[in-house]
DNA sequence: TATAATTAACTAATCAGTTGGTTAATGAGG
DNA sequence: CCTCATTAACCAACTGATTAGTTAATTATA
């Protein structure tokens, strides 16, 4: 009846903490996430969290970097061999949509951070968010210069795309419930492909010249 | 040197607590808002919060009802003597935009609540949110039947409008800062009228028949 | 054996909510 | 108009639970 002794693996432990932290932070938010709870989820002692990440804030920033680096890299990769702005825009939307759908902590985390005025937003998050927007804006800009888009306010268009996609992901359970309750059409059975197809179609129409 | 004694006014105190709670909940979120802090802000004893609102959750729901009733009533009022779907849509967007701008706790609170899957969202909030969406969807529906709109998925269009407006409000300080740092165009000097005008124009173009 | 990984047990602060009591306003009877 | 009882409004001080973060000792591994 000896206790099953755990293998020691620093990398694995550190990664495990990060992965669990992503789940907890994105579902509960920063301040409702308890380090005790996180430790239990990892089956590690709470002190290990501080051993690897110093502070709760430090862990949170590591989570952010992980998530935003991932989506940025994914979009860059998918856009690699496209040169037409119209197709780049399409690819951006489609890639973001798929990623957001399969990594739903991204929309949760972004919306939560954007829901206040960013007074205490970590600098790293702010930096990475700007990077993603700049990428999007540059696609639009090239499109305008090539004459495929007109009358563009990039910031608004960006939020029309990314904001909508994020909300469609995070509200999925609510939309299903709302449909069950009042029978209203909440797009509750749409999958992410349909959503991004529709969005692409509409954004194109919106930006195209008469 | 007698201490300046406070007049007793139950209604005023109760209202004061609610007003301060709106500010705190929308800027800090539910769990980061301390009842102690709120009491200090009201210059009342903490026990008074529980005297009037029983629990923190109860206070939060009172806050929600207050905010969402207000925006709903405002939109209904502004739409009262309009019958054309196109104008109704325009009025909805314009009214929502102005309200969101002058009551910025609304976007903060909505985005925050929508950023998780709504597992612990108060029933009252869910109910009021549906009401607002149903109003919007019915405008679109009438428009489709009258032939002014085509190819409409109301849920997506709703988020394109409301999601974008909410984000433009909450991110205002961040957008200004981003513009200062990288010189990028973040629509940082746009006022809410320009934003809603642009949005109306684009949404119209999006939904109008060829 | 040296050091990296891990732990139990702790601290000090903060939290929502309660308790038991103290004022201030109110209304009725003299 | 005054007085006294009733009650609504208010508060200081508390409870018990939870929090982020620390420490000092203990394993496992190279």
What are the key terms here?
DNA-binding, Tetracycline Repressor, domain 2, Arc Repressor Mutant, subunit A, mainly alpha, 210 residues, homodimer
Commentary on this structure:
- The structure is a homodimer of 210-residue chains.
- Chain A has 210 residues and is an all-alpha fold.
- Chain A has two domains: 8-54, Arc Repressor Mutant, subunit A; 65-207, Orthogonal Bundle (Tetracycline Repressor, domain 2).
- Helices cover 73% and strands 0% of the residues of chain A.
- Chain A contains ten helices and no strands.
- Chain A has helices at residues 10-28, 35-42, 46-53, 56-78, 85-102, 105-114, 123-146, 154-170, 172-182, 192-207.
- The N and C termini of chain A lie far apart (78 Å).
- At the A-B interface, α1, α6, α7, α8 and α9 of A face α1, α6, α7, α8 and α9 of B.
- Chain A binds a DNA duplex (30 and 30 nucleotides) through α3.
Kindly summarize this structure in a few lines.
Two copies of one chain form a homodimer. Chain A has 210 residues and is mainly alpha-helical.
């Amino acid at each position: 009846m000896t206790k099953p002794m755990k293998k020691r693996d620093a990398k694995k432990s550190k990664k495990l903490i990060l992965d669990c932290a992503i789940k907890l932070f994105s579902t509960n938010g920063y301040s409702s996430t308890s380090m005790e709870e996180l430790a239990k989820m990892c089956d590690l002692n709470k002190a290990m969290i501080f051993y690897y990440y110093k502070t709760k804030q430090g862990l949170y920033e590591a989570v952010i970097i992980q998530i935003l680096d991932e989506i940025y890299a994914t979009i860059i990769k998918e856009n690699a061999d496209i040169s037409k702005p119209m197709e780049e825009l399409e690819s951006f939307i489609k890639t973001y949509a798929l990623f957001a759908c399969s990594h739903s902590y991204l929309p949760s985390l972004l919306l939560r951070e954007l829901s206040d005025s960013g007074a205490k937003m970590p600098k790293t998050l702010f930096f990475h968010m700007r990077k993603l927007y700049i990428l999007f804006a540059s696609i639009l800009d090239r499109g305008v210069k090539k004459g495929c888009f007109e009358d563009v306010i990039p910031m608004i268009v960006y939020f029309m795309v990314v904001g909508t996609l994020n909300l469609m992901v995070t509200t999925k359970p609510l939309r299903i419930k709302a449909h069950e309750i009042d029978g209203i059409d909440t797009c509750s059975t749409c999958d992410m492909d349909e959503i991004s197809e529709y969005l692409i179609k509409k954004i194109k129409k919106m930006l195209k010249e008469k």
